[in-house]
Design goal:
This protein is an alpha/beta fold. The protein has 15 helices and 9 strands. It holds the Pfam family BRCT.
């Protein structure tokens, strides 16, 4: 009889409750044979179509999942990858609950027998690692298995696959190993590879240089736009830089704006220079450039692709002069007025009730929903995919990070 394979899986999720609104944000499948040899490693981020929950746990950034598939996009391929296998996971019950819920949302269903016959390496530790801890790290430490990046689906699944192979080495003559794999082969429900496989999307690698958004703007010649279009772009740039951070959404909006009004890359670079010079003039208006102002200039230079030579020139001492009539405004909370509505979204560093109380004390109104009357949305992650964030962007409401809330709205410098 043909032998099946082990499909070692791991999921990273937005929370703990698949029956409510939590979703899978990353999934990995490691295909393992009876000898413990890894035959394939497949992993992808998944767009959960909601905010990412506690990002401090899984480390997935919202901008990483903007181009990621939804679960419904990969459901058929995942169904094929699991066919003819025995599913394995560390804390299997957690992963299969999310798998079952996601397949149901996608209008598909794994065979009734598939998930219940799976193997849980955490439960198997009772037999093979008596007295050891039950976490994946504890079990891996017992065998000196390297767990490179905990709470990364691919690395957790790979460590679990090695853990299973160690169990098989400890008990090589156990008939259950071969019996389960024979049953898996006999009950395979897919005979052929799907006609199209979805390109997986992986986490950003730290240290990898990302393409600057200016490089995505089309080079045009000749250009027929004029000052009005330039001001339109600068106005969008001003709003995007409100919190001195350009989210992936904001970068895409700037690229789209340049494309729509037919700005060339050369002109955009010139406009960025004008913006930077305007902020520098404002900072030097009193003849003093403070450390905070220099840090602000350095931040803007990095975000807009301003050269180090331009930044150095802007930091050189100059006499106090009235700043040029700015085409842009320095980031501040001055656009907010007492009574303005502010909406919060995502898991903040402080309890939501405490933040709402501070907003009320500062004269603003915390609002539970995004309407056209809302002035600002504060997100735990400025690239949040929550319904509130999507609605705010559609209304043109600024979406800022939590640092902006504390440093510019609630506790601005000098106040």
């Amino acid at each position: 009889m043909a032998q099946g394979y082990f499909a070692v899986i791991d999921t990273e999720t937005t929370g703990l409750f698949p029956g409510n609104h939590d979703r899978i944000a990353e999934i990995a499948v490691i295909t393992l044979d009876r000898s413990g040899t890894v035959l394939d490693r497949w992993e992808t981020l998944v767009n959960p179509e909601r905010d990412l929950g506690k990002q401090s746990i899984h480390g997935i950034r919202a901008k990483d999942i903007l181009e990621a598939p939804r679960f419904v996009d990969i459901a058929q391929e995942l169904d094929w990858r699991l066919s003819g296998t025995i599913v394995v996971a560390h804390n299997l019950g957690f992963d299969v609950r999310f798998l079952g819920a996601e397949f149901q949302r996608a209008g598909l269903a794994l065979p009734d027998f598939y998930l219940p016959r799976g193997l849980c390496t955490m439960q198997m530790a009772h037999e093979y690692l008596p007295g050891a801890g039950r976490s994946l790290q504890d079990c891996c430490d017992s065998f000196s298995i390297e767990l490179r990046h905990a709470h990364s689906a691919g690395d957790d699944a790979e460590a679990t696959a090695v853990l299973l192979s160690r169990y098989m080495e400890l008990d090589p003559d156990l008939d259950d190993w071969d019996y389960l794999l024979e049953q898996a082969a006999a009950t395979s429900w897919h005979a052929a590879t799907p006609p199209a496989l979805f390109a997986p999307v992986h986490r950003s690698t730290e240290g990898t240089r990302e393409t600057h958004f200016v490089d995505r703007i089309v080079v045009r010649l000749p250009e027929i736009t004029g000052p009005a279009e330039h001001q339109e772009y600068l106005a969008l740039l001003d709003r995007a830089l409100l919190d001195r951070y350009l989210s992936a959404h904001e970068q895409s909006a700037l690229v789209a704006m340049a494309d729509e009004i037919e700005l060339s890359r050369t002109t955009v670079i010139e406009l960025h220079g004008q913006y930077f010079a305007s902020v520098a003039d404002t900072a030097w208006a009193d003849g003093v450039l403070t450390h905070d102002e220099l840090d602000d200039l350095a931040t803007i230079a990095q975000l807009l692709g301003i050269s180090s030579a331009q930044l150095e020139a802007a930091s050189l001492a100059r006499p106090a002069t009235p700043p040029r009539a700015p085409s842009v405004n320095a980031a501040s909370s001055s656009f907010l007025e007492p009574g303005d509505l502010v909406v919060l979204t995502g898991d903040m560093t402080r309890p939501r009730s405490a933040i709402e109380a501070e907003l009320e004390s500062a004269g603003f109104k915390s609002h539970p929903a995004v309407t056209k009357k809302v002035k600002l949305l504060v997100a735990a992650d400025p690239d949040s995919l929550s319904g509130k964030a999507r609605k705010a962007r559609s209304y043109g409401i600024p979406v800022v990070g939590e640092d902006y809330l504390w440093n510019q709205v609630l506790h601005p410098a000098g106040h």
